[in-house]
Amino acid sequence: MLLLSKESTTMASFFQYSVHLADSPFWAFAVHDGHQIDSAVEHFMLLDETQRLREEDPYTASMAELPINQLFVGSSRFQLDVNRKEENSVYLRPEQAWGLEVWKDTLPSTVLQQLYDDHKNFYKQVDSYIQQTIDKYHFFVVFDVHSYNAQRADAKQPIDKHANPQINLGTHYNTEKWRPLIDRFMESVRSQRILDEAIDIRENVKFKGGYLAQHILDKFGNQGCVLSIEFRKDFMNEWTGLPYQPVILEYKQLLLHTLKDLQKLDVYGV
User: Fold this and answer.
1) Are the CB atoms for 239 and 183 separated by under 8 Å?
2) Above 70 in pLDDT, residue 191?
3) Domains of the chain: residue spans and CATH
4) Could you tell me which SUPFAM superfamilies the record lists for this protein (predicted)?
5) Is residue 28 within 8 Å of residue 65, measured between CB atoms?
6) Where are the alpha helices (H) located in 24-157, listed in sequence order?
7) 105, pLDDT greater than 80
8) For site-directed labelling of 259, which of 54, 70, 117, 186 has its Cα 20 to 30 A away?
9) Is the model's pTM score more than 0.90?
């Protein structure tokens, strides 16, 4: 599909994301891909770049760079996590951040309020984009692309593949109406191979879908579906951040192939 326009958006002064608009009812989100920390926030940050990268989702925007509408967040989730509710979107306590102490001292109230305002503004914009898509096409489908760690102990830890599927598809918050689309997504992925190996994709094993999916589906769930696609970090060294480019490219091709399969599916009437 032809990419019609491109725009970059900075919400207030701290939060950054980009939006690419296409003639399509499909969206690709990569809300945890970002690594940027705004200068007004950075000197309060205790974590270094390596610690932050460990829990971010690098390269997911590259995988989600598909010929559809795109929304990619450039700011780190350690500054503002828009996949959580507003009250939990800034990691103020270690238990919100995998046991990590994120900030040197208590954040000034003005900084914290600006971050919460950024969260509100982001969701207002997301709502607007989804509503515009519904107005034009009468439905929407979101590929909500993430990744997750499977070697929590150390880099040499054997991956428990039974407990950690190669792809976890979060579908829990969708209505039953979208079951045929979800099934087609699963079938399409299973019909493909990665590096000439079968693909292990399962639903709601590690993650059911984050707050972004819940919010969109609470408001618009009768008109669309959110597929929260969590790739196990087989495409990189999750401890060093070193990418495995052939796997990244194959995951992008997998999403592209699956997108084409879904575009053929006649289940979008509302």
Assistant:
1) no
2) yes
3) 3-263 (3.40.630.40)
4) Zn-dependent exopeptidases
5) yes
6) 39-42, 49-55, 60-63, 109-137
7) yes
8) 54
9) yes
